[in-house]
Amino acid sequence: MAEWFEIADADMVDTPALVVYPDRVRHNLALLATQIDDLGRLRPHIKTHKSREAVLLTLAAGITKFKCATIAEAELLGSCQAPDVLLAYQPVGPKASRLLALMQEYPRTRFSCLLDNAEAAQHLNALAEASHLLVPVFIDLNVGMNRSGIALAAAFRFYQQCQDLPNLDVVGLHVYDGHIHDEDLAVRTERCHQAFAPVAALTEQLQEAGFAPVIVAGGTPTFPVHAARPGVECSPGTFIYWDGGYGRAFAEQPFLPASLVLCRVVSLPTTTTLCVDLGHKAIASESPLDKRVTFLNAPELQPIGHSEEHLVVEAGPDHGYRVGNVLYGLPHHICPTVALYAQATAIENHHLAGTWPTVARDRILTV
């Protein structure tokens, strides 16, 4: 029997290429739905796939809320008639007016965004007032990642200040704990609870003041922890395609790899090494060399050199590989890998089955 990833007509695919297995995407979406008590608490991030086809499968799975990081991703979701879209970014500069343009272009979609800064809030409010719009916003909290978000000590006052701006509607709190990614689930859970404790206290303070904040929390690593937290919306993203890094680190989440990179042996530079067409431009390369790709049909190959268009791997003596051999690579980090490709080739029943354009890898679609 063929392995799940093998493509019968691989000779028709030029490499390097991104391939996606829709049946596995559907499996991962169905599995996600079993891991939470209410589909209304799911707000998956589309940064991993950036494609219309994956959005439509997510909607078909009964998920109606989404998170994204760019205006282009938000526009893609609007064009798919996604009911509820959170731009998980503070709109600064032209992004603020672009967001308002999306609200006008896609009135069936409820767009919201993040805020953590008074000047940004006032600017967004002024633009919204000029456009006669009310913009839903979430206050972005810094719970330890130190990348964005307001300090917890200043959050209550900022929440009130934003709510006092007439063209902003403060919906709730955004809590991204991306710094928590321990492989040990018990350690990860404890760190997640520690980071969330002041958020729970802030929520109680806001409720006592008459507010009813919605909380959007976590990513894929802390999804199991937040899924067990009543009422909190969860925002996993990588789950939909999965990858080698998360597969090794978060074994308690049994999602299936659903997207690979196809490449070929293009040279035999020495008696023990191969060169394949999987350079920096074809696979995410921010991780150490040994954590970039694993070849499912050749797991013994070890990367030893990487450049823009080439990856050199050690195969050992008498390896038997030939120029032209096809390799199926499982990326260590799928999200930035997908963004390197204009499209993915869909594979169903081991055969080519159309393409999934990576529409939202572009920074601008129409708005």
TrEMBL record:
Residues 258-348 form the D-serine dehydratase-like domain. This is D-TA family PLP-dependent enzyme. The keyword Lyase applies. Belongs to the DSD1 family. One of its GO terms (biological process) is D-serine catabolic process. GO terms for molecular function: D-serine ammonia-lyase activity. SMART domains: D-ser_dehydrat. The keyword RNA-binding does not apply. PANTHER family: D-SERINE DEHYDRATASE, ZGC:162816-RELATED. It comes from the Bacteria. InterPro entries: Ala_racemase_N (IPR001608), D-amino_acid_metab_enzyme (IPR051466), D-ser_dehydrat-like_dom (IPR026956), D-ser_dehydrat-like_sf (IPR042208), PLP-binding_barrel (IPR029066). It comes from Hymenobacter setariae. Keywords: Lyase.
